[in-house]
């Protein structure tokens, strides 16, 4: 089947967070299954085009609706490691994707509404329409709405839409003029069972539109799927999700083991695996040398995270201080688009800069991230909520024991060393429930004790984590089953 994945990120050419890894990993695995896959992306000026081969313009520029006129948009195509990438390059004074960054602009709603509208025009002009259009998060939430509006056009009604929710904390609440921008009628759509935002009746909710008009909706872990229907983590979309529960589910994300694999990782000095775990020590020495940490027998606690309130910022800071006070070392690699949060962690970095046991790196460095996973002993993930999380999966793959809060995908993948109902052979980390300093300390202290007093058992936790299957093989098969079900359902309804 033909599958078009529509996203605002795809690693390694345009990555801000886990969405980029999701798109790359799933698309590559679908290719292995013999499916015809292309990824549709904006052509950002910060896109790392050196990874794309044979990039060329295809067809005449699209004429994309923009309020009461149309704007030209070039379409480029190239290959990313065998994966077809289609890039949308607006030719207008608005410079929608020439902002020196992917997100964080005041007109993000207008920028990504234009991208959504350009995707629709691409589908209209194409003689190779996909069987499946896989959209992601609010920035592509308008696409199912637009597609439904033109389903009477020849061939358009045959396209099935899968819509993946990566984070309900950002739903795309925008003014209804966005609907006018892309040629939709606000009057017919600004009602509760369509796009009217449940928080504010003056606003349209683009994620809600995607949920209503997609053929299937999923989120990125079974636990998070339950949480957003039954707890406050649904952020007022609980009734809508329950209304559409017959087309809703949770599929756990995978890891691209061609990228995250200590046995072949080109970013680390010494490769290793579960059968050669002692070689991890060489990466620990290199990590300390690179960051000028004291060479010692202390365990290294890591934080590799976007610095966002979702991630439990107070708990991250408390965990850093607690680890140092208890005789550990700490490394943080993190970034934030919020100036207040950045200033907070710059202050913490300045306060702790004289310590030989602590380094806070504010920004994102892909090579350093790989080395941190390979060289650390434990990783802290005290999220307030976590749809899936790749951090704990990567850490376990690299023999770094996760300490996590029992939410979302963290609860689906981390099994407590002491209190899990799983056999010891699959226990792989530490969990806590209460989002409080005491809750975090309860897990960290148990990890410290095992590391100090029972090193053989701690080593087994590492090995258990490394032996887990976190690949995209099973999740990709689940997506394929959903795609085929959508196509079959359409064929049955047509007959």
What does this molecule look like?
- The protein is 38% helix and 20% strand.
- It has 495 residues and is an alpha/beta fold.
- Strands 1, 2, 3, 4, 5, 6, 7, 8, 11 and 12 form a 10-stranded mixed β-sheet that branches.
- Helix 14 (408-413) links the parallel strand 17 and strand 18.
- It is globular, with a radius of gyration of 23 Å.
Query: Termini, distance in Å?
Result: 20 Å
Share of helix, binned: 25-40%
Contiguous uncertain segments of 5+ residues: none
Overall form: globular
Instruction: Please identify the structural class as seen in this structure.
Output: alpha/beta
The overall pLDDT, averaged over residues, is 96
State Rg: 23 Å
Please outline the major beta sheet: 10 strands, mixed
The share of residues in extended strands comes to: 15-25%
Number of helices: 17
Extended strand count: 18
Essential attributes:
six-stranded parallel sheet; alpha/beta; ten-stranded mixed sheet; 20% strand; 18 strands; 495 residues
Summarize the structure.
This protein is α/β, with parallel strands linked by helices. 38% of the residues lie in helices and 20% in strands. The longest helix is centred in the last third of the chain and has 22 residues, at 473-494.
């Amino acid at each position: 089947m033909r599958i078009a994945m529509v996203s605002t990120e795809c690693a390694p050419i345009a990555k801000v967070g886990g969405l980029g890894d999701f798109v790359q990993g799933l698309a590559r695995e679908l290719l292995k299954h013999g499916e015809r896959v292309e990824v549709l992306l904006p052509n950002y000026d910060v896109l790392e085009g050196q990874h794309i081969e044979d990039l060329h313009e295809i067809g005449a520029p699209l004429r994309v609706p923009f309020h009461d006129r149309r704007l030209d948009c070039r379409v480029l195509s190239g290959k990313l490691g065998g994966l077809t990438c289609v890039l949308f390059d607006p030719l207008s004074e608005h410079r929608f994707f020439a902002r020196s960054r992917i997100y964080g602009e005041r007109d993000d709603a207008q920028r990504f509404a234009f991208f959504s509208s350009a995707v629709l025009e691409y589908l209209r002009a194409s003689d190779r329409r996909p069987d499946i259009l896989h959209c992601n998060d609010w920035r592509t939430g308008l696409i199912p709405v637009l597609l439904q509006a033109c389903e009477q056009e020849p061939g358009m009604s045959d396209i099935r839409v899968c819509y993946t929710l990566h984070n309900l904390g950002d739903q795309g609440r925008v003014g209804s003029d966005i609907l006018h921008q892309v040629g939709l009628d606000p009057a017919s759509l600004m009602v509760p069972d369509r796009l009217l935002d449940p928080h504010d009746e003056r606003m349209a909710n683009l994620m809600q539109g995607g949920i209503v008009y997609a053929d299937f909706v999923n989120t990125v872990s079974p636990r998070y799927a339950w949480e957003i229907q039954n707890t406050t983590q649904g952020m007022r979309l609980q009734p809508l999700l329950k209304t559409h529960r017959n087309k809703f589910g949770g599929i756990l994300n995978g890891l691209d083991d061609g990228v995250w694999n200590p046995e072949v990782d080109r970013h680390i000095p010494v490769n290793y695996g579960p059968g050669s775990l002692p070689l991890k020590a060489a990466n620990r020495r290199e990590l300390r040398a690179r960051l000028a940490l004291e060479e010692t027998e202390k365990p290294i606690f890591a934080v590799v995270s976007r610095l966002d309130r979702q991630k439990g910022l107070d708990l991250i800071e408390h965990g850093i201080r607690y680890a140092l006070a208890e005789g550990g070392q700490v490394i943080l690699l993190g970034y934030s688009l919020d100036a207040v949060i950045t200033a907070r962690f710059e202050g913490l970095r300045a306060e702790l800069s004289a310590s030989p046991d602590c380094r806070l790196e504010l920004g994102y460095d892909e090579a350093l991230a790989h080395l941190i996973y390979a060289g650390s002993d434990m990783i802290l993930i005290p999220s307030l909520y976590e749809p899936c999380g790749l951090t704990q999966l990567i850490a376990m793959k690299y023999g770094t024991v996760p300490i996590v809060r029992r939410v979302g995908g963290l609860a689906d993948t981390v099994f407590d060393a002491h209190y899990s109902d799983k056999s010891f052979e699959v226990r792989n980390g530490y969990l806590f429930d209460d989002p409080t300093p005491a809750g975090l300390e309860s897990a960290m202290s148990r990890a410290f004790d095992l590391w100090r007093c029972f090193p053989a058992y701690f080593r087994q936790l590492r090995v258990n984590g490394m032996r887990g299957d976190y690949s995209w093989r099973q999740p990709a098969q689940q997506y394929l089953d959903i795609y085929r079900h959508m196509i079959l359902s359409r064929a049955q309804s047509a007959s």
